[in-house]
């Protein structure tokens, strides 16, 4: 066991504070990672506040982890000391179910093991990336290509794969009109990735406040959803709408923007149930769908794709003492576009 410094929420809704946690000794297939950067995801806040149901405390959030391998177990074959690596939202799964065998570990039928706020298959609680080191089985570690600096790579491990996976699954590409709802941590990466995939990209944001950034980062069009004219003008336009917002949406209004056979895919998760008039999907044979992160192999594919296309997150680098302030700012959508913690400051 190694004692490492971390930032933890001692209880639901309590401010995060500096503490120490124990990391397990490296086992046969484990790698020890010296964490350099950890992104702050909106879901860290949902969980630290118990917005998604009962949580485990103390909680060390953080599932956008980028760092360097500093020790490997005797059975490790994929990584060596010094490799640049990342860890995303899960650190284990059953590995034998139908979904795990297909590389869809995120949908493991036995439940994947979350990077934090979870109990590992060894019975011990998991602690996330707001810490100086983490020990992870090599099969749940991905390689960060040299072309992506580690600080802007960190948010790709959740926000990047969460948008990449549905964009690929629903075939965003040349000739396709894709809308991204919300232009925050997830949304700005969705725009960059959809653009790099060759789609015609429209941002649907509450206001035009971030329009200049949107157009600069790859959007072809930018509309304000607070303007009712947007919904008239864009009726029946899109093949795919990717909603990244975690506030409840007027789903019927957004479904009206799809072409026949179009899909509205939700990757943001509101805390409250939503309601829908099903006529919104009957007319035009539309699909309302959801998608969660991506499998390990697909996460590696996403990182390689991002390196090839020069994609990293737009970040505000902060020190650990600024985490609580950053949480407040994320909740008021005041971040361009992802906070990343320099974990050397923990
Ligand atoms: Zn996340
Ligand atoms: Zn499984």
Automatic annotation (TrEMBL):
<dbReference type="GO" id="GO:0008270">
    <property type="term" value="F:zinc ion binding"/>
</dbReference>
<comment type="similarity">
    <text>Belongs to the zinc-containing alcohol dehydrogenase family.</text>
</comment>
<dbReference type="Pfam" id="PF08240">
    <property type="entry name" value="ADH_N"/>
</dbReference>
<keyword id="KW-0862">Zinc</keyword>
<keyword id="KW-0560">Oxidoreductase</keyword>
<dbReference type="InterPro" id="IPR011032">
    <property type="entry name" value="GroES-like_sf"/>
</dbReference>
<keyword id="KW-0479">Metal-binding</keyword>
<dbReference type="Pfam" id="PF00107">
    <property type="entry name" value="ADH_zinc_N"/>
</dbReference>
<dbReference type="InterPro" id="IPR047109">
    <property type="entry name" value="CAD-like"/>
</dbReference>
<dbReference type="InterPro" id="IPR013149">
    <property type="entry name" value="ADH-like_C"/>
</dbReference>
<feature type="domain" description="Enoyl reductase (ER)">
    <location>
        <begin position="14"/>
        <end position="341"/>
    </location>
</feature>
<dbReference type="InterPro" id="IPR036291">
    <property type="entry name" value="NAD(P)-bd_dom_sf"/>
</dbReference>
<dbReference type="InterPro" id="IPR002328">
    <property type="entry name" value="ADH_Zn_CS"/>
</dbReference>
<dbReference type="GO" id="GO:0008106">
    <property type="term" value="F:alcohol dehydrogenase (NADP+) activity"/>
</dbReference>
<dbReference type="InterPro" id="IPR020843">
    <property type="entry name" value="ER"/>
</dbReference>
<protein>
    <recommendedName>
        <fullName>alcohol dehydrogenase (NADP(+))</fullName>
        <ecNumber>1.1.1.2</ecNumber>
    </recommendedName>
</protein>
<dbReference type="InterPro" id="IPR013154">
    <property type="entry name" value="ADH-like_N"/>
</dbReference>
């Amino acid at each position: 066991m190694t004692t490492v410094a971390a930032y933890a929420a001692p209880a639901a809704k309590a401010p995060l504070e500096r503490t120490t946690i124990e990391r397990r000794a490296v086992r046969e297939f484990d790698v020890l990672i010296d964490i350099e950067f950890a992104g702050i995801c909106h879901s860290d806040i949902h969980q630290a506040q118990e917005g998604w149901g009962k949580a485990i405390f103390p909680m060390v959030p953080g599932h956008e982890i980028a760092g360097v391998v500093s020790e490997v177990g005797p059975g490790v074959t994929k990584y060596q000391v010094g490799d640049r690596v990342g860890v995303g939202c899960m650190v284990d799964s059953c590995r034998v179910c139908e979904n795990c065998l297909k590389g869809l570990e995120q949908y493991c039928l036995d439940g994947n093991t979350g990077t934090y706020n979870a109990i590992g298959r060894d019975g011990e609680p998991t602690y996330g990336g707001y810490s100086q080191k983490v020990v992870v089985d090599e099969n749940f570690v991905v390689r960060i290509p040299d072309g992506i600096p580690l600080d802007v790579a960190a948010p790709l491990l959740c926000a990047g794969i969460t948008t990449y996976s549905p964009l690929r699954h629903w075939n965003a590409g040349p000739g396709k009109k894709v809308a991204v709802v919300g232009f925050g941590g997830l949304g700005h990466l969705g725009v960059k990735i959809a653009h790099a995939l060759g789609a015609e990209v429209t941002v649907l944001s509450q206001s035009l406040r971030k329009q200049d950034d949107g157009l600069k980062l790859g959007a072809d069009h930018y509309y304000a959803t607070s303007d009712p004219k947007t919904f008239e003008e864009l009726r029946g336009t899109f093949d795919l709408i990717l909603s990244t917002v975690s506030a409840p949406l007027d789903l019927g209004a957004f479904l009206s923007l799809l072409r026949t056979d179009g899909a509205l895919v939700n990757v943001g998760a509101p805390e409250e149930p939503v309601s829908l008039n099903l006529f919104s999907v009957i007319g035009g044979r539309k699909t309302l769908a959801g998608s969660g992160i991506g499998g390990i192999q697909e996460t590696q594919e996403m990182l390689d794709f991002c390196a090839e296309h020069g994609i990293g997150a737009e970040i505000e680098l902060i020190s650990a003492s600024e985490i609580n302030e950053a949480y407040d700012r994320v909740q008021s959508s005041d971040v361009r576009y992802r906070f990343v913690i320099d974990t050397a400051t923990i």
